[in-house]
Amino acid sequence: MELERMLQNMATISNFKFDKYRTSPGQFSRQLKAEGILGENEYSLLRTVIDVANAALHGRDVSKQDALRTIDSSKAFMYETMDINDCNNG
């Protein structure tokens, strides 16, 4: 998942130690928020995406509205974190 890679990149850039094979995206995002790597807005956007993805993964119906909201949140999260990643890479 592209969002997971972005989280891993953010953690790596911030020298945050993590185990990408043992941490769920939800746990990982909470850890990054607790460390101040993810801001409240980025965390909120990411939680929207994770919640809908988990629902679909576990066989629950996902409404068209939820799917569209997830796409919008994913885009917004990527734009927000691109600024963070670009600043840390440059």
Could you give the topology of this structure?
Blueprint: H1 2-13, H2 25-34, H3 40-57, H4 64-89
Would you give an account of this structure?
The protein has 90 residues and is mostly helical. It has one domain (2-89). 73% of the residues lie in helices and 0% in strands. It contains 4 helices and no strands. The protein has helices at 2-13, 25-34, 40-57, 64-89. The chain is globular. The chain starts with a helix and ends with a helix.
Q: Report, as a whole number of angstroms, the end-to-end distance.
A: 24 Å
Unreliable segments (pLDDT under 50, ≥5 consecutive)?
Answer: none
Order of helices and strands: HHHH
What level of helicity do the residues show? Answer: over 70%
Strand content: under 5%
Class computed from helices, strands and strand pairing? mainly alpha
Number of helices: 4
Structurally, the number of domains stands at 1
Main sheet summary? none
Q: Report the C-alpha radius of gyration, rounded.
A: 13 Å
* Shape annotation: globular
How many strand segments?
Answer: 0
Summed over residues and divided by their number, the pLDDT gives a mean of 82
